[in-house]
């Protein structure tokens, strides 16, 4: 059934790709120019499993998963005056996306109230439709924080800026994020000492501090991550549950360099879990990757985040080659969460203005002990991934 649904979705994406418009303007309502955007993604993962069976349904005997990844519908409004708003919903995950109101004091500074992405990950803050790889790096999935409800003030002066945010829980709290669900605050600053046409050097620093709580407000924390495959059922590294957790504090450093059609990007994050009855736990991870636009396009830059433009020649589209190395360490003292390091090679094709095809090959190396006295188990699967995407 899942295969049939995915093939149907892929066919719909292909049929719409040549005719979809960018952003659809609906009407002027109450002085606000209302527009409609969307993003649909269909994914396929094929596993060459080693120790653990990565297939989501281990009972079916298959070595592959096919699934709709996202079905995002977004309404946006500009005006009246310096006001703007957005309301997004993902029908696939049954949750709200950005849902907020913003007021701009001037061209540089604004305040936002509602749900939005928190300021602690360059890759997470980038647009989902322009991800350089099908799965974000382990660093981002493990320690990056996505959307929470709160209030933020941010300023963007072109080559420098920053964000300060205070937040609570997600509007639709139907998942279990690694970084807990309690109240907290976040800070991020960025600086681009080189910022010119097709030339950019970026540095960023972020900090997130929040209560370690589960959806029932119990003091709980757990850090685990999939092996760079969003559909995989297993996490090869896992800290286990800390039932005495107090707070989670994540510090992130980011750097990136763009020269014409080449982009190099890296991030390092450290998360400390303070505990009441046991020693504190610290997790580390980092990634570095490079992307080369074979068709010559470069990247834009706004608010300390890279933007991906349209193909220079719509008839040929934009072709990208990419390679990434990412690693995560969840071992600390008596906690044997494991270590994992992955290589990913990928290709992206942005066809015209609205369609994208991606293929990734992931080579995983992981090791984990059940406890300090247990034998070391190595699990080194390979994964092939494909994605079809329509956006407007």
From TrEMBL:
Under Pfam families, the record lists: Porin_O_P
Q: Where are the transmembrane segments?
A: none
Segment forming the signal sequence: 1-22
Q: Which InterPro entries match?
A: Porin_dom_sf, Porin_O/P
Q: Which UniProt keywords apply?
A: Signal
- Which top-rank group of organisms is this from? Bacteria
Protein's UniProt name: Porin
Gene of this entry: oprO
């Amino acid at each position: 059934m899942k295969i049939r649904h995915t093939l149907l979705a892929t066919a719909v994406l292909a049929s719409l790709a040549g005719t979809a418009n960018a952003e659809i303007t609906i009407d002027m309502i109450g002085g606000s120019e209302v527009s409609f955007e969307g993003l649909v993604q269909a994914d396929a993962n094929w596993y060459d499993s080693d120790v653990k069976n990565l297939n989501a349904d281990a009972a079916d005997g298959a070595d592959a998963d096919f699934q709709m990844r996202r079905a995002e519908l977004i309404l946006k409004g500009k005006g009246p005056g310096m006001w703007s708003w957005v309301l997004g919903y993902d029908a696939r995950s049954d949750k709200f996306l950005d849902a907020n109101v913003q007021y701009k004091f001037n061209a540089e500074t604004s305040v936002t109230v509602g749900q939005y992405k928190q300021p602690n990950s360059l890759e997470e803050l980038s647009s989902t439709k322009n991800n350089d790889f099908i799965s974000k790096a382990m660093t981002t999935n493990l320690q990056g924080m996505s959307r929470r409800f709160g209030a933020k003030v941010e300023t963007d002066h072109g080559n420098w800026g920053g964000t300060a945010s205070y937040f609570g829980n997600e509007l639709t709290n139907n998942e279990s994020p690694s970084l807990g669900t309690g109240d907290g605050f976040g800070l991020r600053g960025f600086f681009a000492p080189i910022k010119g046409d097709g030339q950019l050097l970026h540095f960023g620093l972020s900090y997130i501090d929040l209560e370690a709580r589960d959806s029932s407000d119990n003091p709980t924390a757990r850090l685990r991550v999939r092996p760079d495959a969003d559909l995989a059922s297993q996490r090869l590294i896992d800290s286990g549950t800390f039932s005495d957790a107090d707070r989670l504090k994540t510090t992130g450093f980011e750097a990136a360099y763009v020269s014409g059609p080449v982009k190099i990007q890296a991030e390092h994050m450290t998360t400390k879990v303070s505990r009441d009855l046991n020693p504190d736990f610290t997790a580390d991870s980092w990634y570095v990757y490079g992307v080369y636009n074979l068709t010559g396009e470069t990247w834009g830059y706004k608010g300390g985040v890279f933007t991906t433009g349209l193909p220079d020649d719509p008839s040929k589209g934009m072709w990208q080659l990419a390679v990434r190395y990412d690693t995560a360490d969840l071992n600390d003292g008596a906690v044997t969460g494991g270590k994992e390091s992955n290589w990913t090679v990928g290709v992206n094709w942005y066809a015209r203005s609205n369609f994208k095809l991606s293929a990734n090959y992931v080579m995983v190396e992981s090791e984990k002990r059940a406890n300090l006295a247990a034998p070391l188990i190595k699990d080194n699967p390979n994964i092939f991934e494909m994605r079809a995407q329509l956006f407007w």
